[in-house]
Amino acid sequence: MIGLNEYLILSGILFSIGLVGVLRRKNLLMLFFATEIMLNSANIAFAAISGHYGDLSGQMFAFFIIAVAASEVAVGLGLLIVLYKKQGTLDLDNLAVMKG
Questions:
Q1: Domains of the chain by start residue, with CATH
Q2: What is the reported pTM?
Q3: How many C-beta atoms surround the C-beta of residue 94 within 10 A?
Q4: What is the per-residue pLDDT across 30-66, written as a single tens digit (0 to 9) for each?
């Protein structure tokens, strides 16, 4: 049987993978994916703790995080499309130089 510790270990591993992705990525699209991994790891932790204690507040937080992640993807991908059309790249090193 899978207990609370296993879910929290999985959540910690996923959060670490997402954090490494945020710190190491140069492409903005991959940066969004790494952020999504971090948010999903928080969802796993909230749902596991909520199920362990029999309280629904953790699951409500998880649904709120899902809503925030969906809005982040919608707005972020729209901005990425505009940025790609204007600059021709999504590489962070090329985008760091601002032109007037």
A1: 4-92 (1.10.287.3510)
A2: 0.82
A3: 11
A4: 888 999 999 999 999 999 999 999 999 999 999 999 9
Are the beta carbons of 15 and 42 closer than 8 angstroms? yes
Please enumerate, as own/partner, the contacts of 23-32 that have beta carbons within 8 Å and a separation of 24 or more: 25/92, 26/91, 26/92, 26/93, 27/90, 27/91, 27/92, 28/80, 28/83, 28/90, 28/92, 28/95, 29/80, 29/90, 31/92, 32/72, 32/73, 32/76, 32/77, 32/80
Residue reference for tokens 């760091």: 96
d(CA 7, CA 11): 6
| Residue 19, token pair as written in the block | 């954090």
